[in-house]
Design a protein that fits this description.
This protein is of the alpha/beta class. The protein is 37% helix and 18% strand. It is built from eleven helices and ten strands.
Length: 305
């Protein structure tokens, strides 16, 4: 373990953690659609442990925490959370202690994710659904913060306004223009950051909802955005009945995709997004000549069980 000294730049922070940015862009071979360009921004390759879009969302929050001499970070997630996993790893490396508030009780049945974060020194607190639902409640949050000196709370998924500038760097790293940029949507910080990143361009942004959240997800995105914009939408047809729910069809698709493109995906986020893209392509949703960019957000640690 080592500390990143204060007042460091994000460059130093990324270097200290071995973040491999900018992430590469790969073109998928799609013989059935010769007039479509389908590229993938490989944020799954940003780091071997830290899940791609979770780093993007945490980057400036962690820089601020380090400059503010924060000593403890509290955050929230489920038993397989890519966010808690990424945060616990970075906290461990940066010498910040952490509490993970986890929905459900895995005391006798640790997931690989919980095993990792516990090995990295995270304090794990299991809460029931009702308590977990209070994760945005002001009283609950100040109660939590008061238990620690120099503590802060980072919201579920790392999605907050502070996350936008880190995520928008996905767009700023691009070397060419895309008509449409596509990403999965869970807690919405990623989509909001991409929308923020393409403002002042003609790119459109399409989110694929990975949970039943029509209306709700749009509201989350809008809440994070500094300005109203109409260059984005969320498709709700590919959630497969809910968060982390799957079907044999989705599992089969993921296997075929991996065999064809040699890119590992998982069924919770990237699998649903690529399934959606495949289905939308076959329905002629994208005009001929479209240059499409899909964001591979990572999340492969969640695949372990
Ligand atoms: C969390 C996550 C998402 C969803 O991002 P949000 O900002 O929560 O909408 C997408 N992909 C992966 C791999 C994730 O871990």
């Amino acid at each position: 373990m080592f500390n990143v000294p204060n007042s460091q730049s994000t460059f130093d922070l990324q270097q200290a953690l071995n973040i491999d940015a900018p992430s590469p862009v790969h073109t998928l071979i799609t013989p059935d659609y010769p007039n479509i360009q389908l590229d993938v921004k490989r944020d799954d390759l940003l780091h071997s442990v830290i899940s791609g879009n979770k780093w993007r969302k945490l980057k400036y929050a962690l820089l601020k925490a380090s400059n503010d001499n924060v000593e403890h970070i509290i955050s929230f997630g489920g038993g397989y959370s890519n966010h808690l996993h990424a945060l616990a790893f970075t906290c461990h490396r940066l010498g910040i202690s952490m509490t993970a508030i986890v929905r459900g009780d895995y005391t006798n049945n640790l997931t690989p994710m919980l095993n990792d974060i516990s090995a990295w020194g995270s304090n794990i607190q299991y809460v029931d659904r009702k308590t977990y639902q209070r994760r945005e409640n002001k009283d609950y949050i100040s109660e939590l913060i008061q238990q620690y000196e120099r503590g802060i709370v980072i919201p579920e998924g790392g999605s907050q306004s502070l996350a936008l500038s880190g995520v928008s760097e996905i767009v700023h790293e691009l070397q060419q223009f895309y008509d449409i940029i596509i990403a999965p949507v869970g807690s919405a910080g990623t989509l909001a950051g991409i929308i923020d990143g393409v403002s002042n361009t003609n790119s459109k942004v399409l989110g694929i909802g990975v949970l039943k959240g029509q209306g709700y997800l749009e509201e989350l995105v809008s809440r994070f955005l500094p300005n109203e914009s109409d260059n984005w939408q969320i498709n709700h047809q590919y959630h497969f009945a809910g968060y982390a729910k799957s079907t044999p069809e989705l599992v089969d698709f993921c296997q075929r995709f991996e065999a064809q493109h040699k890119i590992t995906i998982e069924p919770v986020y990237s699998g649903k997004m690529f399934f959606a893209i495949d289905d939308l392509l076959s329905n002629g949703f994208f005009p001929s000549g479209s240059r499409i960019l899909a964001i591979h957000t990572g999340g492969l640690q969640g695949k372990r069980s």
